[in-house]
């Protein structure tokens, strides 16, 4: 059974996810930083550091949202970063950020589907995703597309939520994500389901070795996982 934001809707998961992010885009950044106590910014830095040795000149940021990971990737001094997302609302805020920072020559954004990436094979030195692969309607299709557009010896780096296994972090995490996050999210974003979906989608996600096995199935090699903060999030790395 697929986990979707709006269980009563007949729309596909992809359509529902796009609607959800359009609905919460005006509060997305604030809620991200608030609900994670700002740790999400540290996690993004750690994610981009995984590409430091590669020194990619071209980077595709998939499910870019409001562009935070794409902007963080500028620390690698690439020639070009392109961010894609299915939510027009999120991309509007991403565009505002790069205009305010005068980064238009380095970063561009476009509306595009992660499962039908509109670029040729071997177009990018690296692909990145932060908190986006959970939202793919077909996980293997999305990962295979990322592999297709990555150059040989290039890398994909994925940051995603996971579930801590040990007491008491596991118990605190479950209570916070199941009860506190949805309440705060609903109050601030005015979307009753988005942050309940967050908890449900994290629970349903094939984390750890299960996810790296899927990456291998999608033709990535040298896959490995780096747990962050007791396993609350994980960085996944694969090479083409």
Number of separate helices: 9
Q: What sequence of helices (H) and strands (E) makes up the elements?
A: HHHEHEHEEHEHHHEE
Q: Main sheet?
A: 7 strands, mixed
Could you give the distance between the termini? 30 Å
User: What's the structural domain tally?
Assistant: 1
**Rg calc:** 17 Å
The CATH class label is: Alpha Beta
How would you summarize this macromolecular structure in one to three sentences?
With about 240 residues, the protein is of the alpha/beta class. It has helices at about 15-25, 30-35, 40-50, 70, 90-100, 140-150, 170-190, 195-205, 210-215, and strands at about 60, 80-85, 105-110, 125-130, 150-160, 220-230, 235-240. The protein has one domain (about 15-240): 3-Layer(aba) Sandwich (Rossmann fold), CATH 3.40.50.
Task: Describe this entry's structure for a reader.
With 240 residues, the protein is α/β, with parallel strands linked by helices. A 7-stranded mixed β-sheet has the order 3-2-1-4-5-7-6, sandwiched between helices. The protein is 42% helix and 21% strand. Helix 6 links the parallel strand 4 and strand 5. The radius of gyration is 17 Å and the shape is globular. Helix 7 packs antiparallel against helix 8. The model has no long low-confidence stretch (mean pLDDT 96). The protein has one domain: Vaccinia Virus protein VP39 (Rossmann fold), CATH 3.40.50. The protein is built from 9 helices and 7 strands, in the order αααβαβαββαβαααββ.
């Amino acid at each position: 059974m697929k986990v979707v934001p709006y269980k009563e809707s007949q729309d596909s998961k992809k359509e529902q996810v796009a609607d959800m992010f359009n609905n919460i885009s005006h509060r997305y950044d604030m809620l991200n930083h608030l609900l994670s106590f700002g740790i999400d910014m540290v996690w993004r830095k750690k994610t981009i550091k995984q590409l430091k040795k590669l020194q990619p000149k071209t980077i595709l940021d998939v499910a870019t949202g409001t562009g935070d990971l794409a902007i963080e990737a500028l620390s690698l001094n690439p020639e070009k970063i392109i961010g894609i997302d299915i939510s027009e609302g999120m991309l509007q805020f991403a565009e505002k950020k790069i205009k305010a920072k005068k980064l238009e020559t380095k970063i561009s954004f476009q509306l595009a589907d992660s499962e039908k990436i509109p670029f040729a094979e071997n177009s990018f030195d690296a692909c990145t995703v932060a908190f986006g692969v959970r939202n793919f309607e077909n996980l293997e299709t999305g990962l295979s597309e990322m592999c297709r557009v990555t150059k040989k010896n290039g890398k994909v780096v994925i940051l995603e939520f996971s579930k801590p296994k040990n007491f008491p972090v596991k118990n605190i995490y479950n209570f916070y994500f199941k009860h506190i996050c949805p309440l705060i999210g609903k109050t601030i974003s005015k979307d009753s389901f988005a942050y309940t979906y967050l908890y449900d989608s994290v629970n349903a996600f094939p984390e750890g070795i299960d996810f790296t096995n899927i990456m291998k199935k999608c033709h990535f090699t040298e896959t490995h996982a780096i747990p962050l903060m007791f396993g609350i999030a994980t960085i996944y790395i694969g090479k083409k």
